Amino acid sequence: MDNDIRPAEGALRKLQLLELDILIRIKEICDVNHITYFLSGGTLLGAVRHGGFIPWDDDVDVAMPRPDYERFLKIAEREFEYPYKVLTYEKDEKYIFPFAKIIDRREKVRTTSRKNEQIWNVWVDVFPLDSMPKNKIHFTIRKYHILYRRMMFLFSCFDDMVSVNKANRPLVEKAMIALGKAIHPDRFLNTQKQIRKFNQCLRRYRFSRGYYIINLMGIYKFKSLMERPIYGKKTEIPFEGINFRVPEKYKLYLEKIYGDYMALPPEDKRNHHEIELING
C-alpha cells in the first residue's frame, strides 16, 4: 500500500464509522450463533490493502452462504434493536432489494447514482452466497436462467436501481439500459414478484451441491465465481483494528476479481458510489 494514501476524513469518515458499528454487531451475532460470514468485494479489498476501509469507499459488503444467510435473518430480527433494523423484501413490500440490509435509523444518506435521487438510512449490505454446478451444460443453463431473472428484477425497478451513468459497461448491459430507458419496463413489472422469482431461481440449486460459490446479487456477478476451496477454512484478518472472517484464500479471491489488487487506481478512478451523508 502507498503510505501517502491517507484515511478518509470528515463526513465520509463519519459514514464509514457508522457502517463499522453495524459490521461489528453483525460479527457479534454471527460469532455467538456459529453463522459463517465473510467480508466481501471492496470491503475485503480494503482490509487487505489498507487494513480497513478503502479511503474513498463509502459502503460495506458482507456475504454468507445461503443456509447461513437465511438463519442469520431469522436471528437478526430479534437481535438487532434500535437504532438498527433488518430490511428484507419478505418483511417490507416497499423494499426493492433482493438481499438484506442492516440500517442505522438515526442517520440518512443521499444517493445520486440512479435516475431517481434517493434518501436512505446508513446501511450495510448482507448478500447470500449461492452455488453453481461443475458440469458445463448444467452450469450454462443455470447461468442464463439466473441472468434472465436478474434482468427482469432490475427492469422492474429500473429508475430506482440501475446506475445509468456507470462507466465501462459491457455492450450487452449498455443495450439493456438503452432498452430500459426507451420502454420503462417498471410500469408493467411488479418488483416484489420479480424479487421472489429471482430468489426462487437461486435457491433451486442446493448450496451444498455446488462446485462453485458465487455472489449473484453483487456488482461483479459471474466475475465473483469462486471454486469452493477458495472460501475454505475459518480465516480472519484485521479490518479497522478488529478481526473479521474472510475467505481462506483471500488473495486468490481478490486476484480473480481485481487482478493486481495491491495496485492503487489512478486518482480519477477512485470513485465512491455517489453517496452523501446528509447529517454529516
How does this structure look, described?
With 280 residues, the chain is of the alpha+beta class. It has 8 helices and 10 strands. It has helices at 10-32, 41-50, 66-79, 136-156, 158-161, 171-183, 191-203, 250-258, and strands at 38-39, 61-65, 84-87, 100-111, 118-132, 212-214, 226-227, 235-239, 242-246, 275-277. Strands 1, 2, 3, 4, 5, 6, 7 and 10 form an 8-stranded mixed β-sheet that branches. Helix 2 packs across helix 8 (250-258) and helix 4 runs antiparallel to helix 7. The radius of gyration is 18 Å and the shape is globular. The two termini are 28 Å apart. The mean pLDDT is 89.
Question: Per DSSP, what share of the residues sits in E-state strands of 2 or more residues?
Answer: 15-25%
Number of helices: 8
Overall pLDDT, averaged? Answer: 89
Structural class: alpha+beta
Tell me how many strands there are.
10
Tell me, what's the shape? globular
**Unreliable segments of 5+ consecutive residues:** none
Q: Radius of gyration, rounded?
A: 18 Å
Topology pattern, helix = H, strand = E: HEHEHEEEHHHHEEEEHE
Task: Estimate the helix proportion, in percent.
Answer: 25-40%
Largest sheet entry? 8 strands, mixed
User: Gap between N and C termini, in Å?
Assistant: 28 Å
